[in-house]
Specification:
Elements: H1 27-37, H2 43-52, H3 64-74, H4 83-92
């Protein structure tokens, strides 16, 4: 499983209402979330993680469609998340 980035609290997404990262048909909300991502010191690690697994929302200034294109171009096989395993790993600090 791709390793979930070990954030330190400086990530932009931890400072803002979580709903912004999951826009539903509102391109302005998605665009704003991406702009905020571009200011984050975790941008690349976040994007790398999201490209390697099947997640929804804005991650590393990309949406699902953009990550799909990156996977195709880089021939990355997406991992399906076992959410129970992810929760256990996060709690253990893995």
């Amino acid at each position: 499983m791709s390793r979930y980035p070990q954030f330190d609290g400086s990530e932009v997404c931890a400072q803002i209402d979580p709903e912004i990262w999951f826009p539903t048909g509102n391109s302005q909300t998605g665009a704003m979330a991406k702009r905020l991502c571009l200011t984050c010191p975790w941008l690349q690690k976040c994007r790398d993680y999201a490209v390697g697994v099947d997640v929804v929302g804005i991650w590393g200034a990309t949406n699902e469609k953009e990550r799909s294109k990156i996977r195709k171009a880089q021939r990355v096989k997406v991992e399906r998340l076992d959410l129970d395993a992810v929760i256990v790993a996060i709690r253990k600090g893995v």
